[in-house]
UniProtKB/TrEMBL annotation:
The keyword ATP-binding does not apply. Keywords: Aminotransferase, Glutamine amidotransferase, Repeat, Transferase. The keyword Transmembrane does not apply. The chain holds residues 247 to 598 of 598 of the full protein. Residues 41-175, 209-342 form the SIS domain. GO terms for biological process: fructose 6-phosphate metabolic process; protein N-linked glycosylation; UDP-N-acetylglucosamine metabolic process. Coiled coil: none annotated. This is Glutamine--fructose-6-phosphate aminotransferase [isomerizing]. GO terms for molecular function: carbohydrate derivative binding; glutamine-fructose-6-phosphate transaminase (isomerizing) activity. It catalyses: D-fructose 6-phosphate + L-glutamine = D-glucosamine 6-phosphate + L-glutamate. GO terms for cellular component: cytosol. Its EC number is 2.6.1.16.
Length: 352
């Protein structure tokens, strides 16, 4: 496929930039179809009692977000299954399997689906992929080609599409009140503008932080609750693009071992620290060891400022993902690595 990167220095930069527009297109097709689970009906799916989310890599982080929204808004039980570990997942009646794969060609995901007979909903950016053919229903991400090997716009799109499905299931199950759904749809509607604002706010600080931190051998990413998958995704971006050792974990787990890694200047990236009190103890522990905390959030003291809604939605600080993508890319550029084609990685892994 020929793709044009226009004025962008690399495809990854271009694709990071395209996220607000991709989010807008996707939301325009989804909002207004969530009440009473209309989206499910449109997809030809019955309301499930439980959900199994199957994915790898970045897509697995999106799956974690979706699982949380199902639980918080609908009380719907779900399980995130790492595709290559699917043999551990027992069949349960009334399950909908959601397979998240931007390429739709990941062999581990396709193989995992052979284990169960439940209906499969694919969330993919490739509507003609093997996964799309295998699935009973397909929700396309409509992001356009993603050339950079590290997923960027397909991650935010998977979160949005998955959250929409989760809210539709929650609404169909009668646990999500219409007024609450309407309020959440409004927060979703504002997401493209917040993604754009976050990219603008974070761009210069991400470059300055990269100047400061590019030569550090590793970094620890922490968050809490709904922010944890974004800490994991930010860490994965730095690992796959800049070849840095990373650790990503709930902030409360720091004290149970990983804090031993921290010394003077170790970068500790604190994601979506709102409300700040929830992370205060963890931050104090980190600063006491002389580590370099990098706060990603909408507070005035943020090192990597982003635009978050006033109240944290159940899908967490998705806007922070954009800032973390920018940071990982800036570090990679400083180190002279090829941004679009990191070593040892492939855009879609078609072997198990
Ligand atoms: C590869 C890529 C990752 C990606 C993973 C899953 O390992 O390098 O960036 O997250 O595959 O890809 P998928 O196409 O299934 O989302």
């Amino acid at each position: 496929a020929t793709a044009d990167r226009g004025d962008a220095p690399d495809f990854t930069a271009k694709e990071i930039d395209e996220q607000p527009a991709a989010a807008r297109r996707l939301l325009d097709g989804l909002l207004g179809r969530l009440a009473d689970g209309r989206l499910l009906t449109d997809l030809g799916l019955a309301r499930p009692d439980r959900v199994r989310l199957v994915a790898c890599g970045t897509s697995r982080h999106a799956a974690e977000v979706v699982a949380r929204v199902l639980a918080v808004e609908g009380g719907v039980p779900s399980r995130v299954v790492t595709a290559s570990e699917a043999d551990l997942a027992v069949p349960e009646p009334g399950t909908l399997t959601m397979a998240l794969s931007q390429s739709g060609e990941t062999a581990d995901v396709l193989a995992a689906l052979d284990r169960w007979d439940d209906p499969v909903l694919a969330l993919t950016n490739a509507p003609r992929s093997s996964l799309a053919r295998r699935a009973d229903a397909v929700l396309g991400l409509g992001c356009g080609p993603e050339i950079g090997v590290a997923a960027t716009k397909t991650f935010t799109a998977q979160v949005i599409a998955g959250v929409a499905v989760a809210l539709a299931i929650a609404s169909a199950s009668g646990r999500l009140a219409p007024a609450r759904l309407a309020a959440l749809e409004q927060v979703l509607d504002g997401l493209p503008a917040r993604l754009a604002a976050s990219a603008a706010l974070a761009a210069a600080p991400a470059a300055a932080l990269a100047d400061e931190l590019a030569d550090r051998p590793g970094a620890v990413f922490v968050s809490r609750g709904a922010g944890v998958p974004y800490a994991q995704e930010g860490a994965l971006k730095l690992e796959e693009l800049a070849y840095r050792w990373v650790e990503a974990l709930p902030a409360g787990e720091l004290k149970h071992g990983p804090i031993a890694l921290l010394g003077p200047g170790t970068p500790v990236v604190v994601v979506g620290a709102e409300p700040r009190e929830r992370l205060a103890v963890g931050i104090a522990e980190v600063t006491a060891r002389g580590a370099r905390t990098v706060l990603v959030g909408s507070g005035e003291d943020a090192d990597l400022p982003v635009c978050l809604p006033a109240e944290e939605p159940p899908w967490g600080p998705l806007e922070a993902a954009v800032a973390l993508q920018l940071f990982a890319r800036e570090v990679t550029v400083r180190l002279g690595h090829e941004v679009d084609r990191p070593r040892n990685l492939a855009k879609s892994v078609t072997v198990e």
